[in-house]
Design goal:
Blueprint: H1 2-28, E1 31-35, E2 39-45, E3 51-53, E4 58-60, E5 65-72, E6 79-81, E7 84-87, E8 99-103, H2 107-112, E9 123-133, E10 142-143, E11 148-158, E12 161-164, E13 171-179, E14 183-184, E15 192-201, E16 236-237, E17 242-243, E18 246-247, H3 251-266, H4 268-325, H5 329-334, H6 348-361, H7 371-374
Antiparallel strand pairs: 1-2, 2-5, 3-4, 5-6, 5-8, 6-7, 8-9, 9-11, 9-16, 10-14, 11-12, 11-13, 13-15, 17-18
Helix pairs in contact: 3-4
């Protein structure tokens, strides 16, 4: 009886412990919380990566892992990876490069470790996949922003030795953030906190790993040669495809590279003098064409206006001649509109004065002679 009661009491505890261990093994193993909601260390096993020996300068086929440090910045506007912004990016045209330490520790040893310093460890530069849902496009206005970052390591290199990490057994990192500022605008005023951190098996994804040859070829006239149609432009970042000017092969990168070389060769003063001269040579013909067109339009307008006035004047003169032919001499001189010496129509006051002058200038009829004088 006692044994039965004891087994009934211990069974739920054992089941709960087993479930916790199972869950920890699948998604939370190798995650060390340094500061709740802000800073985390993550150890990610890399089955395809050799353990690098600094002294011998070669890799050994031993267990290895890469250690990542994700931290919310002090102003809570960025999620940092190795002290560089990973969400949101500072410049979406030039994805950041990351260098992470390698360790030979197992996940259990990593979790039990008290001091986490990897100053003397080998540091690998990595290729990676960066994906955010919903997409971190700065041109969008977002309400209640809860982004999920997927960070998948695609390759690593050190001392000229590069390795593609395409194993389906490798895991990727998933971090869910919450923006405590419910409504954010452009520019964003984030206030991030870490909601959860997990690692997930890459083999469960439809495309566990994308190789460089799987990416589209950069077109000759492509401005950015982007992976997506809006910011942050790039999802798969291989070191061989980027430099400090952007995506290799894109027009934007070529333009910036040539401008930088020209600036360094000429110096600031001569560079800007050259820019002003080029702009003047390009803009001057345009300004001249616009001014010439404006002068032509002005002259055309004046010619049309003068022709219209002349036509109106001639029509009115013709109407006056017709009235004279009909014998309506008084109406012709008195009632028709009056014009000044310049051809402009006179006001009513000036026109009345002109009418009076016309009547006064008209010759009076002769005075009839008296009858007595004729006799």
């Amino acid at each position: 009886m006692i044994v039965t009661r004891l087994s009934l009491f211990l069974f739920p505890l054992i089941a709960t412990a087993f479930q916790r261990f199972k869950g920890k093994d699948s998604s939370t193993r190798g995650i060390k919380e340094l500061e709740q909601g802000r800073s985390y260390l993550i150890s990610l096993n890399t089955p395809d990566l050799l353990l690098w020996d600094w002294e011998q300068q070669y890799g050994e086929p031993l267990q290895s892992a890469l250690v990542f440090n994700f931290t919310i910045s002090h102003d809570q506007r960025h999620l940092l990876l190795q002290d560089q912004p990973i969400l949101p990016l500072l410049d979406a045209n030039i994805p950041p490069r990351f260098s992470v330490p390698q360790t030979s520790e197992s996940l259990t040893e990593f979790e039990q470790r008290r001091v986490y310093k990897y100053t003397n460890a080998a540091h690998f530069e990595i290729d990676y996949e960066r994906s955010v849902r919903p997409r971190d496009d700065p041109n969008r206005e977002i309400h209640n922003y809860v982004p999920t970052l997927k960070f998948n390591v695609l390759g690593a290199g050190i001392a000229g030795h590069n390795t593609l990490l395409s194993s389906a057994e490798q895991r990727y990192i998933e971090i869910i953030l919450k923006d405590e500022n419910f409504r954010t605008h452009n520019p964003f005023n984030h206030k991030f906190v870490v909601k959860s951190v997990r690692t997930r098996r890459r083999g469960d994804e439809p495309n566990p790993s994308v190789l460089p040859e799987d990416l589209k070829v950069c077109g000759r006239f492509s401005w950015r040669c982007e992976d997506m149609d809006s910011q942050p432009w790039y999802r798969y970042i291989y070191r061989q495809d980027f430099d400090e000017f952007g995506k290799i092969g894109s027009l934007r990168r070529e333009y910036l590279r040539r401008s930088s070389n020209l600036y360094n060769n000429l110096g600031p003063f001569r560079f800007w003098v050259l820019i002003v001269a080029i702009l003047s040579a390009v803009v001057s013909p345009l300004v001249y064409s616009v001014c010439r067109k404006m002068v032509y339009v002005g002259r055309r307008y004046v010619a049309i206006r003068d022709a219209h006035r002349e036509r109106v004047r001639m029509e009115r003169e013709c109407e006056g001649d017709m009235l004279l032919d009909d014998g309506d001499e008084v109406w012709n001189y008195i009632d028709r509109p009056r014009y000044g010496e310049g051809g402009e129509e006179l006001s009513e006051k000036d026109s009345n004065l002109s009418k009076e002058a016309t009547v006064m200038e008209k010759p009076l009829p002769p005075v009839p002679a008296a009858e007595g004088s004729e006799k």
